[in-house]
Amino acid sequence: PVASKGSEVVLSSTTPTFVPTPEALAEAHLVDHCGFGLSRTGNCYAWGSNAEFMLGVQAAKNKSYVARAPEQVQLAVKVTQMHSQGTTVCAMTSSGGILCWGGRKEHALPQ
C-alpha cells in the first residue's frame, strides 16, 4: 500500500520510508521497481528503476538509471489520471488525450 502524508509518500516495507516529493500528491502507484505520482496540480513524478524505460524522465535514456527521488516527467500538458501496469505507464491529459511510455513487453503501446 501507498499512503500520502503532506508532500511525502510512504512506501510499504518492513521499515516505512518517506519519499519526499516536490509537491503534494493526489495519487501514487507502484509497479515492479518504480513509483509514480500525480500531483494535485496535474504534474507527474517518477522514481525507481528505469529497466524498462518507465521513468519517462530526461535522464532516463539509460536502462541502468535509477531515480532515487521523484523526478518530474516533462509533459507539455497537465494530467488528470495516471495508471501503470506491467512495464507501461499511461496518463490521461486534461484535454482528454492519453500519453503512454515504458516498455513494450505487453504491447500496450502502438507499434
Question: What do you see in this structure?
Answer:
This protein is mainly β. Helix content is 0%, strand content 51%. It is built from no helices and ten strands. The strands form three sheets. It has a four-stranded antiparallel sheet, with no helix packed on it. A hairpin with a 4-residue loop joins strand 5 and strand 6 (44-49). Residues 1-5 have low confidence and may be disordered.
Beta fraction of the residues?
over 45%
* Secondary structure category: mainly beta
Mean pLDDT, rounded to whole units? 79
Terminal Cα span: 33 Å
The biggest beta sheet reads: 4 strands, antiparallel
The portion of residues assigned to helices is under 10%
Q: State the total count of DSSP E strands.
A: 10
Q: What are the segments in which pLDDT stays under 50 over at least 5 consecutive residues?
A: 1-5
How many separate helices? 0
What key phrases describe this protein's structure?
111 residues; mainly beta; 4-stranded antiparallel beta sheet; 51% strand; globular
Summarize the model shown.
By secondary structure, this protein is mainly β.
List the helices and strands and how they pair.
Layout: E1 2-5, E2 8-11, E3 17-20, E4 25-31, E5 34-39, E6 44-49, E7 66-73, E8 79-85, E9 88-93, E10 98-102
Antiparallel strand pairs: 1-2, 2-3, 4-5, 5-6, 6-7, 8-9, 9-10
